[in-house]
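Page header: ASSEMBLY MODEL / two components / 467 residues total.
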Amino acid sequence: MIAVIDYGLGNLFSLSSSLKAVGAKAVITADPAQIRAARRLILPGVGAFGDAMARLDSSGLTGLIREQARQGKPLLGICLGMQLLFQSSREFGLHQGLGLLQGDVAPLAVAVAKAGLALKTPHMGWNSLLFQRPDCPLLHESHEGEYMYFVHSYYVRNCGESLTASADYGIMVPALVWQGHIYGCQFHPEKSGAAGLRILQAFATGEAAGQ
Amino acid sequence: MIAKRIIPCLDIRDGRVVKGLRFQGLRELDDPVRLARFYNEAGADELVFYDITASFEERPLFTDMLRRVASEIFIPLTVGGRVNSLADFDRVLKAGADKVSVNSGALLRPQLIAEAAEKYGSQCVVLSLDAARFSRAEGAEEFHVFAKGGREDTGRDAIAWAQEGERLGAGELVINSIDTDGVRGGFDLPLLKAIAERVGIPVIASGGAGRKEDFLSLFQLPGVDAGLAASIFHLRELSIGDLKQYLQQNGVEVRL
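Prediction written out in full:
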């Protein structure tokens, strides 16, 4: 069973349907008992970083997610959910994240402008993946150059070793990060057609803690 | 870099696709779920559904259709048609839409854009506008926004309205040209250029696609992100796969 952590942000319809489509059993929940009982966790999210962390804090989920990650349970953060895995964000003020991965979150518009590029933000649409670490378990069924669907205005910086795949948007945007049993994708695998479903399937069928 | 998007658009009435379908021997393709599956496999980058249901009572047919499509098609889905309130946003988002397009509802009450962007995020709010040329006596040409499906000149300047939409929080623009719609002689490049130069959000061009070359000249315009079309795809005059191959051979980045 996969627990999709529900903290009241974003539309979970597609994620839940796409997990069903890859044959994964999933439950959308905020219940600590269900989260503890699940074999794997997905942290979704759309919206602002500070608001998301405030919701996780007030519902007691921040500590629970950290505890579960410490115990080695596979965790996949999607879009804002990926950004939350890092240490901090500068989206509308400085906010602390879950701190499970090294790195921080910064506005894409500033980076793109600094690079002297006239590119639109948000980074929205289909972009292709470059692999830094093709050995990542989530990429077993994927190929470099496959397109994924992105919608985001902030991006992860300084993520060091966890950088697994990236997308070229004038600057290199971390698209997939991975460290041990913790994964994050900046794109929406549940909106990226067959290529996205292969990533979700790889997470759903990968080796889980304690198995 | 970001691929240019090809977006088929489906008009839905009473839960069925209504517009100009000519799939010989494949009548069941007026089933939106089958047609959505077909376009998904053909390489569509996104699907747009317009609800042209006549009465309020028939609304659930549309949301049921949407729910069925969203349960098995995993590319972005945009929904438009009769979106006048946050309750309308809520209804289609809960049924699986990823983005909601507003047109007349935003003309009547522009604040709807801001309220929806605040509640659901800008990425969710698409401003769709119908524009046509308006010639002044002295010969100067400008573009006006039309309401009621293109029947009523609002007197509003199309470029100013597009900019206002961006300022209020729309995440994307769909620009429908009334002058080129149905003519199939190409997209309205002067209109699109005028708007794309003045906004910083993605621009989706609509109206006028007749041949694959039309998409090439469209994507040669800086600032245009996607091409939307209905009949050219529905009538099977052009397959999305062939179109994308052609664009790629001509230096346009597409998702193949």
